[in-house]
Write a structure and sequence with these properties.
Blueprint lengths: L1 H11 L6 H18 L5 H16 L7 H10 L7 H28 L7 E4 L4 H12 L5 E5 L6 H12 L2 E5 L4 H4 L5 E4 L3 E2 L5 E4 L2 H10 L4 E4 L42 E4 L6 E4 L2 E3 L4 H9 L5
Parallel strand pairs: 1-2, 1-4, 2-3, 4-7, 7-9
Antiparallel strand pairs: 5-6, 6-8, 9-10
Helix pairs in contact: 1-2, 1-3, 2-3, 2-4, 2-5, 3-4, 4-5, 5-6
The chain binds ribulose-1,5-diphosphate.
């Protein structure tokens, strides 16, 4: 169980972060754990894996990649040889997640024209893949990265793009409306996509979408199919994680009574989203329902 507890802690304290990475880390932990379980009857094995899955799922509440990855791996428990199957499913998830990001890069890069300035928010592997692919196709592009307070994941994005040789400008989150006239397209990642085509992503994403809408700048999100939330098809709401206020600021003395709120994500309504880039193609937000129906079935069992 050590690997499970360790992974749970790393996801919780954001040592491992970003929806795709969280999902793959959970799948990997389940695989490693399954491999260590020896000489056990199938029922006992299933109990242990389900318990491990539950713990991993509870590490962070918003990114649906986490429960979707766990569910994918746990489907192996239904097979004749559950241990072998769980290990195989975990490996499958990790490989298909990496391939999905690559495909999103190729599909999304088609929306980026030569000479474009792109704005991105937070640190999304999938959004970065789109930008990197466009750049390596030879397009002359510039990128604005927001800082993404309070944890400044935008610094990671700016460094990753700089390492590729891309022209990057870091801006504070509140400067998006100031710079939007210089932006041709917004590309962000996704922690979850709902059945009605809304996007749950890093706090501030919805403000950027609104600003892009006002300025008539296309707003795209990159989301692997496992970022679509199956339970939203039956009206379930996605929990927005609220993190430790100390991530924002710490006041002393009499100012300790100042309240601080620190929601980590927000919801962008579908009307502000021009397209969702998935590994199976570019879809309008209205197409989210079809993805959930095709890849997850009608209702969660
Ligand atoms: C990360 C975040 C990213 C999505 C998508 O938030 O909001 O935009 O997770 O990332 P946090 P990816 O830093 O709180 O985990 O495309 O890498 O899955």
């Amino acid at each position: 169980m050590d690997i499970i507890k360790e992974t749970y802690e790393k996801i919780k304290n954001m040592e491992i972060r970003g929806a795709g990475r969280i999902g793959r880390a959970a799948a990997y932990a389940l695989k490693e754990y399954a491999e260590t379980i020896m000489y056990m009857d199938d029922e006992e094995f299933k109990k242990k894996i389900i318990e491990a899955g539950e713990l991993l799922r509870s590490a962070r509440p918003t990114a649906v990649s986490l429960p979707n990855a766990v569910k994918y791996v746990l489907n192996g428990l239904k097979d004749e040889n559950p241990k072998e199957s769980v290990i195989k499913k975990a490996e499958e998830f990790i490989i298909s997640s990496k391939n999905a990001t690559k495909n999103i890069g190729k599909i999304g890069a088609k929306r980026i024209k030569d000479g474009y300035t792109i704005l991105t928010h937070c640190n999304s592997e999938a959004a970065i893949e789109v930008i990197k692919t466009a750049y390596h196709e030879g397009k002359d592009i510039k990128v604005f990265c927001t800082e993404t307070r309070p944890r400044n994941q935008g610094y990671l994005t700016a460094k990753a793009l700089c390492d590729e040789g891309i022209d990057v400008t870091l801006i504070v989150d509140s400067a998006v409306r100031y710079f939007i006239k210089e932006v041709d397209i917004v590309v962000v990642g996704a922690d979850a996509i709902t059945a009605n085509g809304c996007l749950v992503n890093k706090i501030g994403t919805s403000q950027i979408a609104l600003i892009a809408h006002e300025a008539r700048v296309p707003f795209l999100t990159s989301a692997e199919t496992y970022k679509f939330h199956p339970k939203t098809i039956v009206g379930e709401l996605i929990e927005i994680e609220e993190r430790d206020p100390k991530e924002v600021v710490e006041f002393d003395g009499k100012y300790k009574k100042i309240k601080i709120r620190n929601p980590a994500f927000d919801v962008t309504p579908s009307q502000y989203i021009d397209a969702i880039i998935t590994e199976v193609g570019l879809i309008p937000p209205q197409g989210a329902w079809y993805i959930i129906e095709k890849y997850f079935g009608w209702i969660e069992p």
